[in-house]
Amino acid sequence: MSPDRTPAGDAFAAFAISVLRLAGHLQTAGDALAKPAGQTSARWQVLAAADHAPMSVAEAGRALGMTRQGVQRVADLLEKDGLILYAENPAHQRAKLMVLTDAGKSTLEAIKSRQAVWANVLGELFDKKHLQQATETVITALQAVEKQSVPDD
Amino acid sequence: MSPDRTPAGDAFAAFAISVLRLAGHLQTAGDALAKPAGQTSARWQVLAAADHAPMSVAEAGRALGMTRQGVQRVADLLEKDGLILYAENPAHQRAKLMVLTDAGKSTLEAIKSRQAVWANVLGELFDKKHLQQATETVITALQAVEKQSVPDD
DNA sequence: GTCTATTTGACAACATATTGTCATTTATGG
DNA sequence: CCATAAATGACAATATGTTGTCAAATAGAC
């Protein structure tokens, strides 16, 4: 026989499971949005980060919550495809800055445009207040899960 | 210049991004919960599905929202480690049924027990009503995103 | 300035998951 | 029954991401 889960624990577990399932569908939707531009969610994320501001691979990793190795792999592919280039970084000899090329910019714009249509349609289905409250709860959970270290064995 | 995102679209996009970020942290937490038992989130999921009811690899894939190939890979590892076994399926010659061994059952119990402690602590941090409303919104989004096919290029 | 710790990119090994293909088995329509 | 369609497991290729390690570059302590 197993836990010991309180009603509050049940509520949080149900919330967590639904969030994980939704994330899977959002990931699929993101890939579909990026696909016509010949991209994927991962490439889109890196492109968007570099577009927000020129940054090193390691910085993008921190911004995206990924390891720098993972970002490096994607960034090298983006460079090979001519969507970004590695610009000299006056502040660091090794850590070159990712910068979008014109091709990268127009590719990102194409994805953003499709994403806008998608988000607008879905946003209309919700009461704005509910969406904002849910977002708040998700962010609260985000901070709590970050802080809450899992109990050691 | 890019979209065209409405306030409703902005609200949904913010919600989606926060959900994706939380899912990343939940995944990390899940791995940490499973690790002392020598498992991972992926193996835990498959164990839990097979524990809920003996089922084929393809059935588990549908239940977990994964491809049957992905489940197959994990299930073969679980079998090799003696946590599940493939039982004959009277209804289907090829599609054997995954069944937990005693080792599999106790491993799953260990993970569930740790998960209960974790969920109980986190659940206490929330107003139960907020958590339930957020879960509802997430589930609504789940269904909407499933239905909403991404616009073709 | 010098020594040390940290950061960074490069490289490799591995875990996870998807897509695609194939042959076998099961289900279905006639 | 039989022919065709669908489901299933097996196998391979690829995409994504983590962990671990190394050397070079930078930052910080003194």
UniProtKB/TrEMBL annotation, chains A, B:
MF-aspect GO terms: DNA-binding transcription factor activity
Alphabetical list of Pfam families matching this protein: MarR_2
Domain HTH marR-type: 12-147
Segments traversing the membrane: none
BP-aspect Gene Ontology terms: response to stress
Gene3D superfamilies listed in its UniProt record: Winged helix-like DNA-binding domain superfamily/Winged helix DNA-binding domain (1.10.10.10)
Name of this protein: MarR family transcriptional regulator
Originating species: Shinella kummerowiae
